[in-house]
Each structure stands twice: as structure tokens, then as C-alpha cells.
Amino acid sequence: MRKKKIRNKKAVLAFMTAVVIGLFLLRSVLLNRGVIRTPQPLEPAELQRQMNEYEVGINANGHAGRGTILQFTEPKKNQEAGTCYVVSACHLVKNGDGCEITFSDGTKAAGEVIALNEELDLGILKCSVNGQTSVWFSEDLMYQMQEGDPVYYLDQESLMSGSYIGKDILLEETDAGLRRMAFAGENKNGMSGGGVYSSTGYYLGMIIAGSDSEEPAVICIPGNQVVDYFRENH
Q1: 221 - beta bridge partners?
Q2: CA nearest neighbour of 195 among 42, 84, 65, 61
Q3: Which pLDDT score, from 0 to 100, does residue 156 have?
Q4: Low pLDDT (below 70) residues in the chain
Q5: Kindly report the CA angle at 88 between 106 and 43, in degrees rounded to 5?
Q6: What's the pLDDT at 79?
Q7: Per DSSP, what are the bridge partners of residue 127?
Q8: Please, which residues bridge with residue 83 across strands?
Q9: How far is it, in rounded angstroms, from Cα 1 to Cα 30?
Q10: Which stretches of the chain are assigned E, i.e. beta strand?
Q11: 51, exposed or middle or buried, with CB in 10 Å at 0-12, 13-18, 19+?
Q12: What is the pLDDT of residue 17?
């Protein structure tokens, strides 16, 4: 009986390995035939237009910053407005009351803080609004980013660019050993909480600070940490 069980385990392992290989081969065939298409880099004007749909301004008790629409749901029957969830930096929104969210079309809404994590420096706001769009995020695309790849972010509504450094940077002096994403680029006041994007318009993470190291960088929370925290806390 024991030998039979061992053979069965080997057979299951061989079968699962074959399935995984088969899925990779199928994906390769579909990509080659154009059935599955990988996201393509966008022209700057289109990239900026798309990012403006996801990015919002936040005024929290007189402190200006930014946020990203992680999820928007259309209003249900008998509801006048949909529900919008915005992620931003904890240090910007942690005082709770008085958060005003300004959308790209000029619409303003009162944001309710529903979750905070001071260690991550991450907060979630909720508001009622119509006509908004949820951001696109792919963990696979985030992991495919290489050092030197271009990244994009907004200063108010102006498109800015930087150079990707990595998603696993250890910043012991500022983050108690937390690992962060970083890119080389200009950091200005009022950018905290805003999103950073790939050239294809996919969300990569959230800007939280500038680094004072010998090689200045913009420090971000990796997008998978933002999304995971959101899924667990809204």
C-alpha cells in the first residue's frame, strides 16, 4: 500500500507539472496569435488623460495631497450616487474629519476615513459620487518592472516622469525595516498619496515621501501592498 501511495503522489505531481507547462504553452500561443494582448505603452497625452481619471486631489484640514480611486461602484437601484474608495497616505488623512476629495471633472465630495495603517502609511477614504473610474492594477506587470524603466505620476494635473529603481528597497532609518518601492524623480510638496504608473497606464504604487539619501529618490508603497490592504479593510 505504501508504494502505491508514493506512485500516486508522483503521478499527481507529474500531472500538475504537465498542466502548468500546458497553460504556459497555451498562453504563449494565444499571445503569438494576438488573442491575448499585453498592454502597450501609451502616448504621453493619452497616459495623462487616463491617469487623470484615477487620480484625485485631497484637502485634509488644510493639508494638500493626492489619492487614487481604487474602486468605484455604480449606484444600485434607488440610490442617487455610487460608492468610491480612494487610497491615500495615512500621514495626510489620519486626522479623520475634514477630508475633501476633488475629482478630475471638478466634482467635490466629503471623504470618510474608514481604515488607517500608520506603519504602512496607508489610509482608505470612502465617499458618494457618480461618474468615476477605478484604476487598473496587475501584480504580474508590477513584478515585470526593471530598473531604469520609465514611471509616471502627476503634479497637480501635469505629467511627470521618473526612472524605476526597485520594489524591494529596505529603508531601515525611516520605515522600521519595511521594504518600499522607489524611483528616481522629482518630489514636490502635495504629492503624498498620489499614484505612480507604468508607461502602459497601470498602477504601480503610492507616493509617500522623498528620500534624503545621496541619490535622491521618491519612496512609494508597492501596489500589491496597497491592494491587499484595501481588500482586507473596506
Answers
A1: 206
A2: 65
A3: 78
A4: 1-37, 96, 171-177, 212-215
A5: 60
A6: 86
A7: 84
A8: 73, 128
A9: 43
A10: 55-60, 63-73, 82-88, 99-102, 108-117, 122-129, 150-155, 158-170, 179-184, 195-197, 203-210, 218-222
A11: buried
A12: 59
